[in-house]
Design brief:
This protein is of the alpha+beta class and 106 residues long. 38% of the residues lie in helices and 33% in strands. It folds into two domains: 57 residues, Single Sheet (Ubiquitin Ligase Nedd4, Chain: W); 37 residues. The termini are far apart.
Amino acid sequence: MMPGMNPRQMQKMMKKMGISQTEIPATEVIIKGETDYVIRNPNVLKVNMQGQETLQITGDLEEMDSISEEDVKTVSSQAEVSLEEARKALEEVDGDLVEAILKLKQ
């Protein structure tokens, strides 16, 4: 928002330029990719600018651990190894449970 500008004036000006924004209620936003992220306490705005929709997200950004504790326990019990060894094997095979178990049993 522009400093010193009344919010109603800002909305009017945005409407004239073909820009509308809608708040989307959210408790958590997850971004999955090469590295996964979670945004806690997000404020999500959907902005429509002349037909082009974009999302503006602010909040507390955290990097997610892509390997779950349940997967680590499964590999550990199936391969009969420690949790640390199971986690390391899962990291080496990008989280593939079967491949991690086979690797540890060799």
